[in-house]
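Hi team, as promised in this morning's meeting, here are the two structures we talked about. I've kept the exact order from the run log so nobody has to guess. The first one is mostly here for context; it's the second one we should focus on when we meet again. Sequence first, then the predicted structure tokens.
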Amino acid sequence: MATRTANNTATKKNKTANYFKGLKSEIKKVSWPTRKELVKHTLVVIAACIFMALLIWILDTGFHGLFSLILGN
């Protein structure tokens, strides 16, 4: 009985060690962006968010005005 528990614990440790070895190997394969690329992509995301926020605000204001005319409020 004790042998099974010891083997089970050893197997779990091996699986954990193999997981982290694989993780380390995969992280080495990642192509990380340069600082310049990171700043450029961040600015694109911020600009897209601002554009979408303005678009939604314009549509919301337009629909509010349209519904106000229809309902007479």
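And here is the second protein, the one for discussion:
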Amino acid sequence: MKRFVAAVGACVLLGGAACSDVSFVDEVAIVNDTEYAANIDVSGKARDGWLLLTSVDPHSTITVEEVIDQGEMWIFRFDYVGKYEEAVEISRSDLERRDWTIEVPKSFEQRLRDLNLSPP
């Protein structure tokens, strides 16, 4: 909700015209079947700015509502407390086929284990 309010506030401050081309996706679900919590950011193909989506606990699913549309290519970045991050690129059409659901990759968990970071 804070991100949505911030986006609306920015549009008001910029006079609305700057945000007239901004569209939103109703919701994006993040599934985390790993032993580690993850912070998730998203960006578009140009990677010219990252939007913090949420944090997700181990073995849980969270849904984020009203996500700014990233266009034809979405890049999700998964971060574990600044110790390791991994990015996953997925096309808009693949996200739609997956009912706007993205999973924390198993390779994210494996890399954290390889770094000898114990799950919380």
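Starting points for discussion:
The first strand starts at residue 24 and ends at 32.
The two ends are 27 Å apart (CA to CA).
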